[in-house]
Amino acid sequence: MADIQRRPFVNHLRGAPTAHVRHWRRGRLAHDGVGQSFWFRPLSAVLAEVPVDDRELPLLVHGRTADFQDVAVQCAVTFRIADPAAAAARIDFAIDPTTGQWRAAPLEQLGGLLGELAQQHVVDLVAGLPLLDALTEGLPKVRARVAGALAADERLAATGVHVVDVRVTALRPEPEVERALQTPTREHVQQQADRATFERRALAVESERAIAENELATQLELAVREEQLVAQRGANERRRATESGAASQIEAEAEAQCLRLSAQARADGIRAVGAAEADAEGARLAAAATVDVDVLLALAARQLAENLPEIGALTITPDLLTAALNRLAGTP
Predict the structure, then answer these.
(1) Helix, strand, coil % (nearest 5) of the chain?
(2) Residues 262-315: pLDDT tens digits?
(3) 3-state secondary structure of 133
(4) pTM, two decimal places
């Protein structure tokens, strides 16, 4: 919308860079272009403002397919006014010289024209397609048909309207029909899901069975190894006891041998000492046999004296002295 400032007897218009302004003064074109800014007299000026930017027109078209099924086509048409002079000549884009607002509704009129043209071609195309073909192949066909038809339309060309793009975003049947069409796919997907669930459960059972078998095999292996360990421990204990007994036996035999050797050595010593003593005694006896009795008595007395305890006092009686003297004299 143009920005108009009012002053006494004159007004000032300042346009926008996306609006084409046409100013007629006394029936002649005074200003024509985009981004205009000028002074004008409200009573003698005729103003028209034509937007030249891209505009979006959303459409929802209802049609019936060849098999009598209702469908809804949702699309959008992007257009712009390429020839503002032609558009201003065919559609009322006049604005109020005081407020700058359109006197009519030109964009609604232009949108209605585009919508009717697009709807006509969408309905004609959908009417020749069965429902399944319309749902599977309808989007590109509708887009190509509407874009080509609007681009070739003579009325739009004469109005100066250029169609920039056509987009078809959805083509849907009635909700009940859509649910009925979705049912086989849903059932198939559910079957696939159930099959996947069963396969997952079977795989889980197989995995559990493998785990159980592995645990059982592990337990059996552990039992076998435990049995081997017990047997090995028993063998080790028996070997240890055998070796301990053999060592004890060897030690006892060595000790007995040592005792025998010691006893034998002691006996040999005793025998040697006895033999030596016997030989000495025999030698003494043999020597004594050749010695006089008095000498033997003297030796005996000496030996007796050597073995007697210490005598502190000796009392000699007359009888004892007489008997000793008699013996020394050799008289009875």
Answers:
(1) 60, 20, 20
(2) 878 887 778 777 777 777 777 776 766 666 666 666 666 666 666 666 666 666
(3) helix
(4) 0.56
Indicate the SS3 state at residue 37: strand
CA–CA dist 303, 268 (Å, integer): 30
Asked if 162 contacts 55 with a C-beta cutoff of 8 angstroms, the reply is no
Token pair of 186 as six digits: 């849903």
Rg of the chain, C-alpha, whole Å: 73
Place of tokens 């004469």: 158
Beta carbons of 82 and 160 less than 8 angstroms apart: yes
61 neighbors 77 (Cβ within 8 angstroms): no
All residues at 6 or more sequence positions from 15 whose CB lies less than 8 Å from its CB, including other chains = 2, 3, 21, 34, 35, 36, 37, 49
Q: What is the helix (H) or strand (E) element at residue 328, kind and residue range?
A: helix 318-329
Residue 75 in contact with residue 142, Cβ under 8 Å? Answer: yes
How far out from the chain centre does Cα 182 lie?
Answer: 37
Cβ–Cβ under 8 Å, residues 74 and 169: yes
Retrieve residue 292's tokens.
């006089």
pLDDT in tens, 103-128: 999 999 999 999 999 999 999 999 99
Tell me if residue 3 falls in helix, strand or coil.
Answer: strand
N- to C-terminal Cα separation, the chain? 193
Does the CA dihedral 146-148-154-157 come out positive or negative? positive
DSSP letter for 310, please: P
Distance of CA 259 to the CA centre of its chain: 79
Helix axis angle for 106-127 and 131-152, nearest 10°, is: 140
Q: For domain 3-173, give the fold.
A: Tetrahydropterin Synthase; Chain A (3.30.479)
Please identify which residue in the block is written with the tokens 């009686």: 317
